[in-house]
Amino acid sequence: MDLEQKRLHALRSLNLLDTAESESFDRITRMASQIFQLPIAAISLTDHDRQWFKSKVGVEHDRIPREKAPCAEVTDSRDLLIIEDFAEDSFYCDSVLGLSGVRFYAGAPLVTRAGHCLGALCVLGPEPRSATAAEIAALKDLSSLVMSQIELEHAFGRVDPTSGLPNRLQFTDDLTDLARQRPEEERVLVALDLAQPDQLERLSAVIGPSASDDLVQEAARSLTAFLGPAIRVYHVSPAQFVYLAPAGAKTSTYQPELLRLLQNELVSAELHYAITPVGVTTAFKPGLSLPADCLRSLSSAVRETRASERPIGTYSNSHDIDYQRKFRLLNDFSAALSASDQLRIVLQPRLDLHSQELLSAEVLLRWRHPELGDISPAEFVPIVENSALAWPMTQWVLTTALDLLKTWKAAGKKIKLSVNFSASNLKGDIVDSVLVALAVRGLDYSDLEIELTESTLMQNSTQVLEKLDRLVGSGVALAIDDFGTGYSSLSYLQRLPVSVVKIDRSFIMALRDGARERTLVQSMIKLSHEMGYRVVAEGIETGEAADMLRAMGCDEGQGYYYARPLEIGDFERMTRSSALTNVDVAV
């Protein structure tokens, strides 16, 4: 959002435009007219294409075009403007005001605390004149009075209606004031996070929609009673309160007080066991930290404290940097999906362990960020999979892989490709999306294999079986990826329409550790065969491991011993080569 859009948003959020006359504003306008002894005065708000008068003296109409309006220039510059004679001003002489007989103009900006200029308090006259220093000072004071009145009339927007406490907007203003008064004073900001979102959802499901309101109201009363009238508490998000610790407090020494607060009876016994409140602190200097940055620091500390399952914590710069990087990667990945030079696929060959024949390849995604360089999939894939971009990412990989299969088919080359799907991909009309994508390219459904992890299948057991049956019934193969690392039961595995089990690399890497590890892998292969699965070993890095697996009867293998993930060109050269081992092309 650009600055003008933000300014217009700020103006409209105050609900001033096109509203009825107000004596509180008219009183100020009359004072401006009397001080300057001029017949015209107005509180002029700058909309996108007009100047609309919230209050006016000596004017019949309530608006003029924004084009060539002096108040528009005041809005853009956020500075005082005086035009002593319109007739002598080459720009304004033929404006609406100039042509109507106005010769003098003085306007002072109406600026919010956030720095958005709403318009101007202006005075106008039919004769050329100048403005004295006292008049200018008075006009500035009156413009400040207008803004105070606006804030007063919209004070309800600074109090949360549920808790009755000052809200995030008031917190921002108060910290801005503190920055002006004591910019170098180190202070401690405290946040109390009552509950996690899923806990609030469960409360609403069990008790009713009013449960969250009851929780907040009880906590607000307990918190203010515990802290006393000298400390102002702010309600900044649905289940989060913040306040400034007393002057002189340090994050290290305030921890016991924060723990005592958490041990206080914050909510009733009915709600007590349904929530897990946490408290966190962050140190800052008002003159060096924006209010929004302080709240972000507290949010980062809350996430880290909850992840560590501790009741109290403090802001860690390293964790905040990590979160900011994750946030940036997620936002930048959205742009990468539409860019032509950031994302690409590489292919990890899968071979028959006995014939050494190249059977298929796993499709892997790679991202070269324009500023950060190559981003490891181990870093960005989990971030994206837990967002709304999960399916767009999979769709990009699937589309690219199927386009490659189409090219190979035209060249007479037949190779199956395997694409990884996450749990979130199994929602919506996924089956039709996959089948249509294959059909429009003239591909056989058997050209595609979809890999799903054990945990993905178990988490969605009742919802996805029908979809998986439809895919398999159409000819698409399904594989269980990372087999052995999940928590699947044999009874459930028997119900899955999968044909391939991929033993996780952690088991293959441990083959040399001893007889117990080898027996485990042997048992996994035997069990999978007895259930009708074809078995693939992941992470084969040595010839010794390949020989062991071959002796155990494992069907296929993939890993660095055969080839690292290959660029498409290198993979195609590999398919033409008779030597299908030890292809050392790292990606």
From TrEMBL:
PROSITE patterns: EAL (PS50883). Gene3D superfamilies: 3.30.450.40, 3.30.70.270, EAL domain. One of its GO terms (molecular function) is cyclic-guanylate-specific phosphodiesterase activity. InterPro entries: Cyclic-di-GMP_PDE-like (IPR050706), EAL_dom (IPR001633), EAL_sf (IPR035919), GAF (IPR003018), GAF-like_dom_sf (IPR029016), Nucleotide_cyclase (IPR029787), Rev_trsase/Diguanyl_cyclase (IPR043128). It holds the Pfam family GAF. CDD domains: EAL. SMART domains: EAL, GAF. Residues 326-579 form the EAL domain. This is Diguanylate phosphodiesterase. It comes from Xaviernesmea oryzae.
